[in-house]
Design a protein that fits this description.
Distance between the termini: 28 Å
Mean pLDDT: 93
CATH class: Alpha Beta
Helix content: 40-55%
Low-confidence stretches: none
Number of strands: 4
Strand content: 15-25%
Radius of gyration: 14 Å
Structural class: alpha+beta
Number of helices: 4
Order of helices and strands: HEEEHHEH
Largest sheet: 4 strands, mixed
Shape: globular
Length: 130
């Protein structure tokens, strides 16, 4: 049975790792979410760590930013298992950072569709690594 949770150790919090992700990582874009990702040989206890952001410049109210981050986290949480299994199989650590880029609040299904597409693209690129 798949575990659909998002525990604390899967949250991307390390400032150095986040900076490295933006400097050296790859990015994918599928409206309305952009994802930065970086793979490295397994060095931590978790295979995949993810972070989420909504720009304050576009959404002044914290309520709106939090709503969008909750929707992105939920979409990721329900669709991350294939990526985690692949990272385990390839013995990799993955760092992901999702940034919401639309100018208006979108419904959950649009956000989920975008995140699922990006996870599939990243999985495809990781499968080609050797």
């Amino acid at each position: 049975m798949a575990r659909y949770s998002f525990p604390k150790n899967e949250k991307l919090k390390s400032r150095t790792l986040i900076n490295m992700l933006f400097e050296e990582g790859n990015s994918e874009y599928s409206f309305p979410v952009k994802v930065f990702w970086l793979s490295s040989p397994k060095n931590s206890s978790t295979e995949v760590q993810a972070g989420f952001s909504v720009p304050k410049k576009k959404f002044k109210r914290a309520v709106d930013r939090n709503l969008l981050k909750r929707r992105m986290r939920e979409a990721y949480r329900l669709n991350k298992m294939e990526l985690i299994d692949l990272a385990k199989k390839k013995n990799l650590s993955l760092s992901l950072f999702f940034i919401f880029s639309a100018n208006s609040i979108l419904d959950y299904h649009q956000i989920e569709k975008s995140i699922v597409n990006q996870l599939k693209v990243i999985s495809g690129k990781i499968k080609n690594f050797d």
